[in-house]
Inverse folding.
């Protein structure tokens, strides 16, 4: 379960960072998933920040779970 959370957190962090970088610097073209979600038009920067913070939170949570079960 912790490996799934680590992968999910990493994917969310990368997608969020790509969305923020695309909005700020216009890099990465249409690689990010945020650009393809229609109802987020105009809010891509905020959605990218939320995805990155959510990814970090999931990575921290998966790491805490590993430490508590490890002893």
């Amino acid at each position: 379960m912790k490996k799934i959370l680590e992968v999910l957190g990493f994917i969310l962090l990368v997608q969020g960072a790509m969305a923020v970088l695309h909005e700020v610097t216009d890099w990465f073209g249409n690689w990010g998933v945020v650009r393809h979600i229609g109802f987020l038009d105009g809010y891509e920067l905020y959605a990218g920040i939320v995805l990155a913070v959510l990814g970090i939170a999931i990575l921290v949570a998966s790491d805490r779970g590993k430490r508590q079960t490890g002893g």
Notes: The mean pLDDT is 88. The first helix runs from residue 2 to 25.
